[in-house]
């Protein structure tokens, strides 16, 4: 990769980041996040974006590899009001929640005028992804869908991986949206960034199911009040009870401990360097 491309990449990762539980989070507004992704799609380099909630930070505490993936991302956006609160209150950043489904919709909408091609990797089954594509075409008639792939619920074999890479490259996709659940999707975008020609890989979690209409979204007022977790818990108690009833109190205690002890860093410490900038050869 040329020096000019490396320089472009370094400039692309300018959005400010702050430290929370030793994870480097991006403190940006939704519009800034969308514009950054559009910029990544055009700058000639390769990028990946993670979107984290409080549960993702707890996974980082238990799995240092996931924290390393998040800290090496071009952006690790805050999809959760507790994270946004820390960024606003302690890092003094002008930021808001970058809700994964909204990041996806806004980027697709803005990308229509630029002719961007989108590939969807993930979904629980073929029917869900077909509904997702149909709903997106109805909402954005000029959308360019490059293709999709629904992977199995296991690690791919070498031959399957090679076939996926070949299919995505052949599609000419500019942005690959990945919805296979955290942390699996975060490992995927990190591992596949150097393998794919697509400029941007974005891990968006349950956005596929929400936009396909197979899983209900919380009302906007609950999202604004930080109560989306309650809506999701009521909707899927067997799957999510541990995440929210055990994970939420643990997250609060860990944040309080970081605030009191200033370890591993002062709560909300602003990082002055572009964490995601990495030279590629």
Task: Explain what you see.
The chain has 281 residues and is an alpha/beta fold. The protein has one domain. It is 51% helix and 15% strand. It is built from 13 helices and nine strands. It has helices at 3-12, 30-42, 54-62, 64-72, 81-89, 100-112, 126-139, 158-171, 184-192, 207-212, 220-224, 228-235, 237-261; strands at 17-20, 23-26, 47-52, 75-78, 117-122, 144-149, 175-179, 200-203, 270-271. The strands form two sheets. It has a six-stranded parallel β-sheet with strand order 4-3-8-7-5-6, with helices on both faces. It has a three-stranded antiparallel β-sheet with strand order 2-1-9. The longest helix has 25 residues, at 237-261. It is globular. It starts with a helix and ends in a 10-residue tail after the last strand. Mean pLDDT is 89; it is low at 1-11 and 274-281.
Query: What is the 3D form?
Result: globular
- Please mark out the parts with pLDDT under 50 across 5 or more consecutive residues, or reply none: 1-11, 274-281
Tally of domains: 1
Kindly state the number of beta strands: 9
Biggest sheet strand line-up: 4-3-8-7-5-6
Radius of gyration, whole Å: 18 Å
Report the sheet with the most strands, covering strand number, pairing sense and barrel closure. 6 strands, parallel
List the total number of helices.
Answer: 13
Oligomer: single chain
Give a quick set of tags describing it.
3-stranded antiparallel sheet; disordered C terminus
